Amino acid sequence: MPRAARLLLLAAILGCVGCGAPRPLHLPALKPASELLPAAPQGKTWQLVWHDEFDGVSLDTTKWDFRPEGPRRDGWWTKKAIAVDGRGHLVISALKEDGKYLSGCVVTTGKFEHAFGYYETRVQFQKQPGHWSAFWLQCGGTGTVGDEGRDGTEIDVWEKPTLDDQIEHNLHWDGYGQEHKHAGYKATVPGLSSGWHTIAMWWKPDEYVFLVDGRETWRTSAGGVSQVREYMMLSNEIGTWAGDISRAKLPDSFMVDYVRVFDLVDGNRRPAP
């Protein structure tokens, strides 16, 4: 899409000047606009409320924190495995150092915690077995038992444990012990294992809608739907769910082009591109 057309589309997505909606956040002109947003309900428009384009050469710590260094599943989480590459990408890697498998996780805890809206990532997945990438939402209430997932659900917008064209969406609630409950779906999307893909979740008050490259893959109200604010996480984990890490050619990475969060606000319906 030509740059001029892309900017016109972006202006339409973020709402018109003077419409009474909150002032939109800035998106760099050279980044692709979020063209795959679902149509807003009548009388509403999508408003960008948070984003990271991963510009620069270091993680923006006003938006993210590193998860503390320490053991995680069959590996070790460390900031050594996390980089911003200077070309607009977050890179989270699987590494081997002194016989230990390393990976990492970044979180928005205490910096951006939000309920409902449209959560969108653009990502290129890892190529080697034994580790998996994920974008997920979490809160303290996930461990609470008694109100299903309404008081907090682990929302795995996507997890990628396999190297084929399959993606997983998962929900976990009522803690991680004997009362734990789970719902999930595996979607197959041709071409998913190569190139860049946009994976998103529309968190409504009464259901979750998951989408890959603008097409719906799963719709569910399992757990009663979380009604509380949650923080975001981007992670890479070492574990046999993804295969045998000893067979991997390391280092291996997945890359994130951006993370964007949109809310529905009062305004006119977004025009079609």
Amount of helix: under 10%
User: N-to-C SSE series?
Assistant: HEEEEEEEEEEEEEEEEEEE
What oligomeric state best describes the polypeptide chains here? single chain
Largest sheet: 11 strands, mixed
Instruction: Work out the number of β strands.
Output: 19
What would your notes on this structure say?
With 273 residues, the protein is mainly β. 4% of the residues lie in helices and 43% in strands. The longest helix has 12 residues, at 3-14. The chain is globular.
Offer a few descriptive terms.
273 residues; mainly beta; eight-stranded antiparallel beta sheet; 1 helix; disordered N terminus
Short description:
The chain has 273 residues and is mainly beta. The chain contains one helix and 19 strands.
Provide the fold topology:
Blueprint: H1 3-14, E1 44-52, E2 65-66, E3 70-72, E4 75-77, E5 82-84, E6 90-97, E7 100-103, E8 105-107, E9 113-114, E10 117-124, E11 131-138, E12 154-160, E13 166-173, E14 181-188, E15 197-203, E16 208-212, E17 215-220, E18 230-238, E19 252-266
